[in-house]
Amino acid sequence: MKKLFLLFYWLILLFSLCGCSSIQDSLYDAAISAERMLSGLEESSINVDGYKMAYLERKGGGEVIILLHGFGADKDVWDRFVRYMPKDYRVIAFDLPGHGESFKDNDKPYTIDFMTQGLAGAVDALKLDRFHLVGNSMGGWVGMLYTARNPDRVITLGLFDTAGTKSPEPSDLARALEKGQSLLVPKTDESFFRLMKLGFYKEPFLPWPIRQVLARKAVKNAPFKEKMWNDIHGKQTDVLGILPDLRLPVLILWGADDRITDISVVQVYERYLPNAKTVIIPSCGHMPMVERPKETLDHYVTFLKEHAKLPARE
Questions:
Q1: Which label site among 200, 212, 241, 290 has the fewest CB atoms less than 10 Å from its CB?
Q2: What is the three-class DSSP state of 250?
Q3: Which sign does the torsion angle of CA 146, 151, 152, 156 carry?
Q4: What single DSSP character describes residue 165?
Q5: What is the DSSP letter of 277?
């Protein structure tokens, strides 16, 4: 009976502490550190023209894989995906400009072109010669522009629920935007939780304090995210015109129930990309590498093995 009382006491104390934002932040930092450690990822950064570009890296002696997140996300969306990655690959997950721990400057125009330039500068600073490139959502958009401008450096391209051109059928996000609802820039905890439901078919489990910290961070960063959103959509760079020039092997991987980038856009990429393979994951939303990390990784590794050690283009 005494042991039950002590257990009850400590549980009450723990939940009381979880109501304190500083304790929640500590729990969040510990959880992120644990996720990175389990995946063999270490945080680092590099200076690009006087600005910080942050990244996670898992060392490896083989080919390099670069991972790019979507709008409003950061490098840690790849943690569990990397956990299942064969150990011989060297993996680098960047925080794109304006995201995560990378530089934020209100005087800079955070267009897709600008983010692509940031990626290019970081790749050059790290002296990366040839590599595989994977992008989710906005990260795929950036990845396509980078590849079009640097075709000799990208071995294969992975497009996971990528943005960059208009889908034949509007997504739930597109319908909301037409009504003036900016769902990707949550300004309250409630709107953040609605965004989570929009992004996933089945939300990954997150302990209550972690969800609260994510919501608080999103709300705090809303003004800058809104600036980035306006910058992107004030000067869009549609990728449709460059797709035929992307002659390298491309994996188009999509969640069948994506409500942010509608699956109908897959037919556009299939039509215009000369060398593409498509994988559709059923019962999955906009971020398959988070929602279904092992299944997503298995499809990706199969694709890599089909195109192992491709020679540089002449």
A1: 241
A2: strand
A3: positive
A4: S
A5: E
d(CA 258, CA 186): 19
Q: Provide the 10 A C-beta neighbour count for residue 65.
A: 24
The mean-pLDDT minimum among 36-50, 251-265, 298-312 falls in 298-312
pTM of the model: 0.91
Q: What are phi and psi of 172, to 5 degrees?
A: -60, -35
Contact 212, 273 (CB under 8 A): no
CA angle 180, 186, 188 (to 5 degrees): 115
Q: How far apart are alpha carbons 253 and 237 in whole angstroms?
A: 22
Q: How far apart are CA 97 and CA 207, in angstroms?
A: 29
Strand partners, 281: 255
The token pair that represents 130 in the structure block: 């040839």
Measured CA to CA in angstroms, residue 116 lies from 13, 74, 128, 168, 207 at distances of: 47, 15, 15, 26, 34
In angstroms, the CA 65 to CA 154 distance is: 10
- 60-79 mean pLDDT: 96
Q: Is the pLDDT of residue 39 over 50?
A: yes
pLDDT at position 267 over 90: yes
Q: In the structure encoding, which two tokens stand for residue 147, read together?
A: 């590849």
Cβ(120)–Cβ(146) under 8 Å?
yes
Q: Where are the beta strands (DSSP E) in 199-287?
A: 250-255, 276-281
Highest mean pLDDT, choosing among 9-13, 101-105, 209-213, 305-309: 101-105
**Closest of 218, 192, 213, 190 to residue 23, by C-alpha:** 213
Nearest-angstrom CA–CA distance, 203 and 205: 6
